[in-house]
From TrEMBL:
This is Electron transfer flavoprotein subunit alpha/FixB family protein. It comes from the Bacteria. Belongs to the ETF alpha-subunit/FixB family. GO terms for molecular function: electron transfer activity; flavin adenine dinucleotide binding. FAD binds at R186, S211, R212, G243, I244, S245, G246, Q247, M248, Q249, H250, N264. Residues 3-172 form the Electron transfer flavoprotein alpha/beta-subunit N-terminal domain. Binds 1 FAD per dimer. One of its GO terms (biological process) is fatty acid beta-oxidation using acyl-CoA dehydrogenase. SMART domains: ETF. It comes from Eggerthella lenta (Eubacterium lentum). Its cofactor is FAD. It holds the Pfam family ETF. The electron transfer flavoprotein serves as a specific electron acceptor for other dehydrogenases. It transfers the electrons to the main respiratory chain via ETF-ubiquinone oxidoreductase (ETF dehydrogenase). InterPro entries: DHS-like_NAD/FAD-binding_dom, ETF_a/b_N, ETF_a/FixB, ETF_asu_C, Rossmann-like_a/b/a_fold.
Length: 294
């Protein structure tokens, strides 16, 4: 059986191709609008998206590549554009995309629904199309060739109209690859206090993340650092939540962590019911002492 992987970031392409290697005899990476990563699949197929077109407009080209390859399984990185391509592909093939997969057991995929409140097991009917987040294939390793093919861009009948572009500041946040994640929430009253969290993360050799308000409310943290139901879905070995209340929208992004710690000045914060170890205290007092002890 053959598997196709559709991804736009190198980390996801590598992880998904590694997972696909254990599910199929041949792996093909499809890279729409981005440079094709080599050495992770039996071949890569690059689709050059013209300037002025969104990556979402590559759906006709992606559909054609999948038709030609005829895979039994398609693994898709769950970014906004890749989700669009997954949905278009599912409609094209007359099947459905199974989203937010957190575990595979043979041909059964465990997914979350109702924002992560529940889990269910699904089995694909026809070509299996899955969107798969970080941490599912971490134990696997990718391998492949340097073979890259070019697929023509097929302009859609109704293309997205790009009205403008804006360069966003580059972020070096890579939460998906982090074994230790230290996250901050509304408990941080001032942006300068985030340095206390960064000091602890540095001592632990971890990455810094946040709940939604710090990334999309006050813009103190990059969008790539947002953990939650509409942000990053992680499975780190260690998670430390600081000044985070523990609402479901955030916790669903880290509920697969190996060990969970929390620091909050509110002893009734919901996060204390979900973590393995909790400390009640003011972060301005706790974090310097924690950093010094580490």
């Amino acid at each position: 059986m053959k598997a196709c992987v559709i991804a736009e970031t190198s980390a996801a392409a590598r992880a998904l191709c590694a997972g696909a290697r254990g599910m199929a005899d041949e792996v093909v990476l499809i890279a729409p609008g981005v440079e094709a990563l080599t050495g992770v699949a039996d071949k890569a197929v690059h689709i050059d998206v013209p300037s002025g077109n969104a990556i979402d407009d590559a759906y006709a080209s992606v559909n054609s590549v999948v038709d030609a390859e005829a895979p039994g399984i398609v693994l898709v990185e769950p970014t906004r554009s890749m989700k669009v391509l997954a949905g278009r592909l599912a409609a094209h093939l007359g099947t459905a995309a199974i989203t937010d997969v957190i575990e595979f057991e043979g041909d059964l995929a465990t997914t979350m629904y109702f924002g992560g409140v529940g889990q269910r097991k699904s089995k694909a009917n026809g070509t299996a199309i899955y969107t798969v987040g970080a941490g599912v294939f971490d134990e696997a390793s990718a391998s492949g060739t340097d073979a890259v093919e070019e697929a023509p861009f097929a302009a859609p009948a109704r293309a997205l109209r790009v009205t403008g572009t804006k360069d966003l500041p580059k972020s070096d946040v890579d939460l998906a690859a982090a074994g230790v994640v230290v996250a901050g929430g509304r408990g941080f009253a001032e942006e300068a206090d985030l340095q206390l969290m960064r000091d602890v993360a540095a001592k632990l050799g971890g990455e810094c993340g946040c709940s939604r308000p710090l990334a999309e409310g006050v813009d103190w943290m990059p969008r790539e650092a947002y953990i939650g139901v509409s942000g990053m879905m992680l499975a780190p070995k260690v998670y430390l939540g600081i000044g985070i209340s523990g609402q479901m929208q955030h916790m669903v992004g880290v509920n697969r962590a190996g060990t969970m710690f929390a620091v909050n000045k509110d002893k009734n914060a919901p996060i204390f019911k979900q973590c393995d170890y909790g400390l009640v205290g003011d972060l301005k007092d706790v974090l310097p002492k924690l950093a010094a002890a580490l």
